[in-house]
Amino acid sequence: MNIFRLAGDMTHLFSVLVLLLKIHTIKSCAGISLKTQELYAIVFATRYLDIFTNHISPYNTIMKLIFLGSSFSIVWYMRYHKIVRRSYDKDQDTFRHYILILPCLILALLINEKFTFKEVMWTFSLYLEAVAILPQLVLLQRTRNIDNLTGQYVFLLGAYRALYIVNWIYRYFTEDHFVHWITWVCGLVQTLLCADFFYYYFQSWKNNMKLQLPA
């Protein structure tokens, strides 16, 4: 564990806490893509298949449980909570997210580090996470006006992966044989997808203006 990995984990955790804060306190999921949340639930479910069979540390297990529990609870709130679900903008959240799943699965079957069930599912989760933010970004471009909590959530979600890239670079120079090119490429793709959002986020912060994305 190094400072960059810890910063990435905490940023990821804060992104989830910000979203849960919005849902629990404001009872609103306005501006949040259910499609993206469903993709993240699939990502964590397929990545953490070893949660009870491969114990690394209490910290690792707790973080896995947090991300699994929070992702499925967010989906439940957006789909079934009698108040929260009313604020979900179904008409704008129309990205066909299911078209991302099969290509990622096929790619995981073709390109992986070890052809076992758990390894393929882990690789699939990396590929899917790299593009899971797409429905959210499309929704924000359509709605344009973005509230503070939603903007912070998406920023933290993108920042966590950027910090992980710094962590991987650090480990490359400090650990022998640390070359996980699949992880690196997926992390880079995910960060680049958020680059446009980062630009407008910092512009709005710099000029003390409400965050808006171009159509």
Commentary on this structure:
The protein is mainly alpha-helical and 215 residues long. It has one domain (3-205). Helix content is 70%, strand content 0%. α1 (3-26) runs antiparallel to α7, α2 (34-47) runs antiparallel to α3 and α7 (148-174) packs antiparallel against α8 (181-193). It is globular and about 45 Å long.
Give the overall shape, derived from the CA principal axes.
Answer: globular
What fraction, in percent, of the residue positions are helical?
A: over 70%
Largest sheet: none
Count of DSSP H/I helices: 9
Order of helices and strands: HHHHHHHHH
Family: Belongs to the ERD2 family.
Pfam families: ER_lumen_recept
Protein name: ER lumen protein-retaining receptor
Signal peptide: 1-31
SSE diagram, text form:
Elements: H1 3-26, H2 34-47, H3 58-80, H4 98-110, H5 117-131, H6 134-143, H7 148-174, H8 181-193, H9 195-206
Helix pairs in contact: 1-3, 1-7, 2-3, 2-5, 4-5, 5-8, 7-8, 7-9
Subcellular location: Endoplasmic reticulum membrane
Organism: Gossypium hirsutum (Upland cotton)
Protein name: ER lumen protein-retaining receptor
Quick description:
With 215 residues, the protein is mainly α. It contains nine helices and no strands. Helix 4 (98-110) crosses helix 5 (117-131) and helix 5 (117-131) runs parallel beside helix 8.
Keywords:
215 residues, mainly alpha
